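Lab notebook, page 48
Experiment: co-folding of the full assembly
Goal: obtain a model of how the components sit together before planning crosslinking
Operator: M.T.
Materials (sequences as entered):
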Amino acid sequence: MQLEMGAASHVGAVRALNEDSCLAGTHLAVVADGMGGHARGDVASRLAIDAFRPLAGRTDLTPDDVRRAVVAANADLLADTDVHPERDGMGTTVTGIALVDHFGSPHWLVFNVGDSRVYRLDDGGVRLLTHDHSEVQELVDAGRLTDAQARVHPLRNIVTRSLGTDPAPEMDVWLFPPHPGDTFLLCSDGLTNELDDDGILDLWRNRRSASAESAADSLVAAAVSAGGRDNVTVVVVRTEAATFDEASLATTGPRSRFLEENR
Ligand code: CA
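Observation: model returned without errors.
Model output:
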Protein backbone atom coordinates (compact mmCIF):
# COMPACT_ATOMS: atom_id res chain seq x y z
CA MET A 1 0.00 0.00 0.00
CA GLN A 2 1.33 3.41 -0.98
CA LEU A 3 1.05 6.30 1.45
CA GLU A 4 1.32 9.96 0.61
CA MET A 5 2.81 12.17 3.31
CA GLY A 6 3.42 15.88 3.58
CA ALA A 7 5.08 17.74 6.45
CA ALA A 8 5.40 21.41 7.39
CA SER A 9 6.88 23.13 10.43
CA HIS A 10 7.15 26.82 11.32
CA VAL A 11 8.68 28.70 14.24
CA GLY A 12 5.46 30.75 14.54
CA ALA A 13 5.02 34.48 14.98
CA VAL A 14 6.34 34.96 18.53
CA ARG A 15 9.09 32.50 19.44
CA ALA A 16 12.71 32.75 18.36
CA LEU A 17 13.40 29.02 18.10
CA ASN A 18 11.48 26.12 16.58
CA GLU A 19 11.56 23.34 19.19
CA ASP A 20 9.35 21.02 17.11
CA SER A 21 10.74 18.26 14.89
CA CYS A 22 9.02 15.84 12.56
CA LEU A 23 9.57 12.94 10.23
CA ALA A 24 7.58 11.80 7.20
CA GLY A 25 8.91 8.41 6.06
CA THR A 26 7.51 5.69 3.81
CA HIS A 27 5.23 3.98 6.34
CA LEU A 28 5.92 6.13 9.38
CA ALA A 29 5.18 9.71 10.43
CA VAL A 30 6.24 11.27 13.74
CA VAL A 31 5.89 14.67 15.43
CA ALA A 32 7.90 15.71 18.50
CA ASP A 33 7.41 18.96 20.44
CA GLY A 34 10.46 19.72 22.53
CA MET A 35 10.35 21.56 25.83
CA GLY A 36 12.91 23.02 28.14
CA GLY A 37 13.68 26.43 26.66
CA HIS A 38 17.30 27.09 27.59
CA ALA A 39 17.53 23.37 28.42
CA ARG A 40 17.22 22.91 24.65
CA GLY A 41 13.83 21.62 23.68
CA ASP A 42 14.99 21.74 20.04
CA VAL A 43 17.74 19.22 20.84
CA ALA A 44 15.25 16.99 22.67
CA SER A 45 12.77 16.80 19.80
CA ARG A 46 15.56 16.27 17.25
CA LEU A 47 17.08 13.43 19.28
CA ALA A 48 13.65 11.78 19.54
CA ILE A 49 13.07 12.01 15.79
CA ASP A 50 16.59 10.71 15.09
CA ALA A 51 15.71 7.51 16.97
CA PHE A 52 12.97 6.86 14.38
CA ARG A 53 15.10 7.60 11.29
CA PRO A 54 16.30 3.99 10.84
CA LEU A 55 12.61 3.05 10.37
CA ALA A 56 11.81 5.83 7.90
CA GLY A 57 12.39 3.95 4.64
CA ARG A 58 11.10 0.55 5.76
CA THR A 59 7.86 -1.06 4.58
CA ASP A 60 8.04 -4.07 6.93
CA LEU A 61 7.50 -2.31 10.26
CA THR A 62 6.09 -4.11 13.29
CA PRO A 63 4.61 -2.70 16.53
CA ASP A 64 7.80 -3.82 18.25
CA ASP A 65 9.97 -1.67 15.93
CA VAL A 66 8.00 1.40 17.01
CA ARG A 67 8.10 0.46 20.69
CA ARG A 68 11.87 -0.02 20.52
CA ALA A 69 12.34 3.36 18.81
CA VAL A 70 10.43 5.09 21.62
CA VAL A 71 12.53 3.31 24.25
CA ALA A 72 15.70 4.27 22.34
CA ALA A 73 14.57 7.90 22.05
CA ASN A 74 14.04 8.14 25.80
CA ALA A 75 17.43 6.55 26.49
CA ASP A 76 19.13 8.88 23.99
CA LEU A 77 17.72 11.96 25.75
CA LEU A 78 18.91 10.73 29.14
CA ALA A 79 22.36 9.88 27.75
CA ASP A 80 22.62 13.34 26.18
CA THR A 81 21.87 15.11 29.46
CA ASP A 82 24.59 13.00 31.13
CA VAL A 83 27.11 14.48 28.68
CA HIS A 84 25.52 17.97 28.66
CA PRO A 85 24.29 18.64 32.23
CA GLU A 86 23.16 22.13 31.13
CA ARG A 87 20.42 20.40 29.15
CA ASP A 88 19.06 18.69 32.26
CA GLY A 89 15.29 19.06 32.21
CA MET A 90 14.89 18.93 28.45
CA GLY A 91 12.10 16.71 27.23
CA THR A 92 9.81 16.16 24.31
CA THR A 93 6.43 14.83 23.35
CA VAL A 94 6.28 12.21 20.65
CA THR A 95 3.29 11.09 18.62
CA GLY A 96 3.01 9.23 15.36
CA ILE A 97 1.40 6.74 13.06
CA ALA A 98 2.93 3.74 11.33
CA LEU A 99 1.60 1.16 8.91
CA VAL A 100 2.70 -2.09 10.57
CA ASP A 101 2.34 -5.82 10.12
CA HIS A 102 0.17 -7.19 12.90
CA PHE A 103 -0.17 -10.99 12.82
CA GLY A 104 0.13 -11.06 9.03
CA SER A 105 -2.18 -8.19 8.09
CA PRO A 106 -1.59 -4.44 7.73
CA HIS A 107 -2.69 -2.24 10.61
CA TRP A 108 -2.33 1.38 11.55
CA LEU A 109 -0.43 1.83 14.78
CA VAL A 110 -0.98 5.21 16.46
CA PHE A 111 1.26 6.00 19.42
CA ASN A 112 1.52 8.89 21.85
CA VAL A 113 3.45 10.32 24.78
CA GLY A 114 2.51 13.90 25.74
CA ASP A 115 0.13 16.41 24.17
CA SER A 116 0.92 16.32 20.47
CA ARG A 117 -1.97 14.77 18.58
CA VAL A 118 -3.13 12.44 15.83
CA TYR A 119 -6.51 13.11 14.19
CA ARG A 120 -8.45 11.18 11.60
CA LEU A 121 -9.95 13.39 8.88
CA ASP A 122 -12.96 12.27 6.90
CA ASP A 123 -16.33 13.52 5.65
CA GLY A 124 -17.73 13.05 9.14
CA GLY A 125 -15.29 15.56 10.57
CA VAL A 126 -12.10 15.76 12.57
CA ARG A 127 -11.74 12.96 15.10
CA LEU A 128 -9.04 13.00 17.78
CA LEU A 129 -7.42 9.54 18.11
CA THR A 130 -4.86 10.28 20.82
CA HIS A 131 -5.47 11.24 24.43
CA ASP A 132 -3.36 14.15 25.75
CA HIS A 133 -1.11 13.50 28.72
CA SER A 134 -1.55 16.94 30.24
CA GLU A 135 -2.71 18.69 33.41
CA VAL A 136 -5.71 20.22 31.64
CA GLN A 137 -6.75 16.90 30.07
CA GLU A 138 -6.80 15.37 33.55
CA LEU A 139 -9.09 18.21 34.69
CA VAL A 140 -11.32 17.65 31.63
CA ASP A 141 -11.42 13.90 32.34
CA ALA A 142 -12.40 14.63 35.94
CA GLY A 143 -15.25 16.86 34.74
CA ARG A 144 -13.68 19.99 36.21
CA LEU A 145 -12.98 21.76 32.90
CA THR A 146 -14.69 21.78 29.51
CA ASP A 147 -12.65 21.33 26.32
CA ALA A 148 -13.21 25.02 25.57
CA GLN A 149 -11.91 26.06 29.01
CA ALA A 150 -8.92 23.75 28.63
CA ARG A 151 -7.91 25.50 25.40
CA VAL A 152 -7.28 28.80 27.24
CA HIS A 153 -6.28 27.47 30.68
CA PRO A 154 -2.97 28.82 32.10
CA LEU A 155 -1.76 25.24 32.76
CA ARG A 156 -2.47 24.05 29.21
CA ASN A 157 1.24 23.67 28.43
CA ILE A 158 1.99 21.32 31.35
CA VAL A 159 2.41 17.75 30.12
CA THR A 160 2.22 14.80 32.50
CA ARG A 161 4.24 12.41 30.32
CA SER A 162 7.21 13.14 28.09
CA LEU A 163 10.38 11.55 26.75
CA GLY A 164 13.56 12.25 28.69
CA THR A 165 12.39 10.83 32.00
CA ASP A 166 13.61 8.05 34.25
CA PRO A 167 11.73 5.74 34.54
CA ALA A 168 10.70 5.86 30.89
CA PRO A 169 7.17 7.08 30.24
CA GLU A 170 4.40 4.69 29.34
CA MET A 171 3.28 5.05 25.71
CA ASP A 172 -0.35 4.86 24.57
CA VAL A 173 -0.89 2.66 21.51
CA TRP A 174 -3.90 2.04 19.25
CA LEU A 175 -4.04 -0.59 16.46
CA PHE A 176 -6.72 -0.75 13.77
CA PRO A 177 -7.06 -1.96 10.16
CA PRO A 178 -6.64 0.45 7.23
CA HIS A 179 -9.26 1.53 4.70
CA PRO A 180 -8.81 3.16 1.32
CA GLY A 181 -8.73 6.93 1.55
CA ASP A 182 -7.76 6.97 5.23
CA THR A 183 -6.35 10.39 6.10
CA PHE A 184 -4.59 11.42 9.29
CA LEU A 185 -3.28 14.67 10.66
CA LEU A 186 -0.40 14.74 13.16
CA CYS A 187 0.33 18.03 14.89
CA SER A 188 2.04 19.82 17.72
CA ASP A 189 -0.16 21.92 20.04
CA GLY A 190 0.88 25.05 18.12
CA LEU A 191 -1.75 24.05 15.54
CA THR A 192 -4.58 23.24 17.93
CA ASN A 193 -3.92 26.29 20.13
CA GLU A 194 -4.79 28.46 17.12
CA LEU A 195 -7.34 26.40 15.17
CA ASP A 196 -10.29 24.50 16.63
CA ASP A 197 -11.77 21.37 15.04
CA ASP A 198 -14.08 23.40 12.76
CA GLY A 199 -11.18 25.56 11.59
CA ILE A 200 -9.10 22.47 10.79
CA LEU A 201 -12.04 20.81 9.01
CA ASP A 202 -12.82 23.90 6.90
CA LEU A 203 -9.23 24.12 5.75
CA TRP A 204 -9.06 20.41 5.10
CA ARG A 205 -12.22 20.47 2.96
CA ASN A 206 -10.79 23.30 0.89
CA ARG A 207 -7.44 21.57 0.43
CA ARG A 208 -8.42 17.91 0.18
CA SER A 209 -7.71 17.67 -3.55
CA ALA A 210 -4.29 19.25 -3.00
CA SER A 211 -1.18 17.21 -2.22
CA ALA A 212 -0.54 16.17 1.37
CA GLU A 213 2.44 18.53 1.37
CA SER A 214 0.32 21.46 0.27
CA ALA A 215 -2.42 20.60 2.80
CA ALA A 216 0.19 20.53 5.58
CA ASP A 217 1.59 23.89 4.41
CA SER A 218 -1.89 25.47 4.42
CA LEU A 219 -2.70 24.24 7.93
CA VAL A 220 0.58 25.56 9.32
CA ALA A 221 0.18 28.90 7.51
CA ALA A 222 -3.35 29.27 8.92
CA ALA A 223 -2.15 28.66 12.49
CA VAL A 224 0.67 31.19 12.07
CA SER A 225 -1.74 33.83 10.70
CA ALA A 226 -4.18 33.12 13.52
CA GLY A 227 -1.53 34.20 16.03
CA GLY A 228 1.31 31.68 15.81
CA ARG A 229 1.98 31.93 19.53
CA ASP A 230 3.87 28.62 19.49
CA ASN A 231 5.85 26.57 16.99
CA VAL A 232 3.49 24.83 14.54
CA THR A 233 4.11 21.41 13.00
CA VAL A 234 1.80 19.29 10.86
CA VAL A 235 2.20 15.99 9.02
CA VAL A 236 -0.63 14.83 6.73
CA VAL A 237 -0.73 11.09 5.95
CA ARG A 238 -3.09 9.47 3.51
CA THR A 239 -3.52 6.24 1.63
CA GLU A 240 -3.52 6.37 -2.11
CA ALA A 241 -6.76 4.51 -2.79
CA ALA A 242 -5.64 3.30 -6.23
CA THR A 243 -2.70 1.43 -4.72
CA PHE A 244 -4.68 -0.21 -1.94
CA ASP A 245 -3.84 -3.90 -1.84
CA GLU A 246 -7.17 -5.66 -1.56
CA ALA A 247 -5.62 -9.10 -1.09
CA SER A 248 -3.63 -7.96 1.93
CA LEU A 249 -6.89 -7.19 3.72
CA ALA A 250 -8.27 -10.70 3.28
CA THR A 251 -7.70 -11.60 6.91
CA THR A 252 -8.72 -8.33 8.56
CA GLY A 253 -12.48 -8.66 8.31
CA PRO A 254 -13.57 -5.37 6.75
CA ARG A 255 -12.79 -6.67 3.26
CA SER A 256 -16.45 -6.96 2.29
CA ARG A 257 -16.96 -3.34 3.26
CA PHE A 258 -13.92 -2.37 1.22
CA LEU A 259 -15.44 -4.08 -1.84
CA GLU A 260 -18.76 -2.34 -1.23
CA GLU A 261 -17.14 1.07 -1.07
CA ASN A 262 -15.22 0.53 -4.28
CA ARG A 263 -17.93 -0.97 -6.43
CA1 CA B 1 4.34 23.37 21.56
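Interpretation: The two ends are 19 Å apart (CA to CA).
Next step: discuss with group before ordering constructs.
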